[in-house]
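Entry:
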Amino acid sequence: MSIAYYPGCSGQGTSLEYDRSTRAVCAALGLSLRDVSDWSCCGSTPAHAVDHTLSTALSARNIMQAKTDGAERITTPCPSCLANLKTARHRLRHANMRAAVREILDTDLPEHADDLPDVFSVLQLLVEDVGLAAIEKLVKRPLTGLKIAPYYGCLMSRPAGIMQFDDPEHPTAMDKVLEALGMEVIDFSLKTECCGAAMGIPRREVTARLSGRILETARNYGADVIAVACPLCHMNLDLRQGQAASALRTAFDLPVLYFTQLMGLAFCLPESDLMLGKLCVSPAGLQDKLRESQAPRPAQNGETKEKASADAAKADGEEQS
């Protein structure tokens, strides 16, 4: 099946590490992604607040580009892009909207929206098409010894009627992927709470408080790291972590990684594919803890170092199997 890849605007700049790690992970798992030809902005966060018809046309253009490319499905890593593309496809079920969009784009549209390529998140594609067993099989360095808070944000599975993936209030798809990597996933109660989204510029204090609450709760749960699947969530929790700390009158030093970066770490993909150096909150402490958890245990009660190392290797092998 031909899968078109829609990277989205942030994937070419602020979330370049997400785009690059996504491509690398998919390639490692045998998924062939081909960029939508001559793709353009989907309207991101503000377009639908200005004009529903123009917002639908922006996304419809990209869907039609994918159809012209011969793609049967479209995948994107960004929840905002996902929501816009899926919403546009849903709106095109209505004849009046199809007529309005047809006039704006000056192009033919199928009479039935079901004849358009369907849209999926990269996370859904990995869980439903690739499967957890295939992901676990590719793990070369289990991320054992790390506690992680999976943060989905408020768009990945909402609105449920349009997204049709996972539970809208208590999603578990990312949890399962992280567990397949060997991590201890905490039952994070704020996994779908809003981080403040695009209010970081007009209402910075609101975003700081909401993001701070997420960071503080993850820390209180004992998380070593937060996993995200959204460029805007990542910006608010990573880049704006200092603002969140000031709003709550505390201090944070909690790494925030895209789930695909964590997959790349477990797959032992090159650093050039993961771009960990681009993160604002350094993951160095995280990597140190990971190395410590995987170091051979010291010999005890007269046990030889060789025996201790062999036992550690055996335990690691059993964990991977």
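The CA atoms of residues 299 and 308 lie 5 Å apart.
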